[in-house]
Amino acid sequence: MEETEKTGMPEIETGGVRPVKKQNRVSRSVHDFLEGNYLSTGKVISNIPFVLYVAILAIVYIGNTYYSEKTFKDIEKTKSELKELRFQYLTTKSNLMFFSKQSEVGGRVEKYGLKLSTVPPYRIFYSHDALKKDIDSNTVTQ
């Protein structure tokens, strides 16, 4: 071995062996992940509560989405039922208006022997005093 002139140390032959490079942080993380050592590190174990919290939030978010979709479908179903019931109401109302006309009622009751009146209706006028006298006279005679 020969000593170098500057340092005074013997020179070592490397013989084709390269010095080990320091791995940067990203490549070390990728290397640990691929080897399976990633999950055994203390960082991951200390973050398990946070990971569980995030997982629970994800489950709640998914459940909330399903619930809102179900509620939306129920609302749409109720709207369509309401529309159907409104059409049914209008149809029934128009049928009732038709069957309650005087001519229709007269035609239906003729088979029971009833006839439409040909005399128009008239009003009976009375005074309160005359009605009171009639009531008093009927109670005295009895």
Describe this structure in words.
The protein is mainly alpha-helical and 142 residues long. It has a domain at 47-109. It is built from five helices and no strands. The longest helix has 52 residues, at 48-99.
Outline of this structure?
The chain has helices spanning 25-35, 42-46, 48-99, 102-109, 128-141.
Please specify the SSE layout and strand pairing:
Layout: H1 25-35, H2 42-46, H3 48-99, H4 102-109, H5 128-141
In terms of structural class, how would the helical and strand content be classed? mainly alpha
Mean pLDDT: 82
Query: Main β-sheet: number of strands, strand sense, barrel status?
Result: none
Total helices: the number is 5
- Poorly predicted regions are none
Using only C-alpha atoms, the radius of gyration works out to 51 Å
CA(first)-CA(last) distance: 157 Å
What helical percentage do the residues reach? 55-70%
Please report which band the strand proportion falls in: under 5%, 5-15%, 15-25%, 25-35%, 35-45% or over 45%.
under 5%
Apparent shape: rod-shaped
Taken in chain order, the helices and strands follow as HHHHH
Strand element count: 0
What labels describe this entry?
142 residues, mainly alpha, 63% helix, rod-shaped
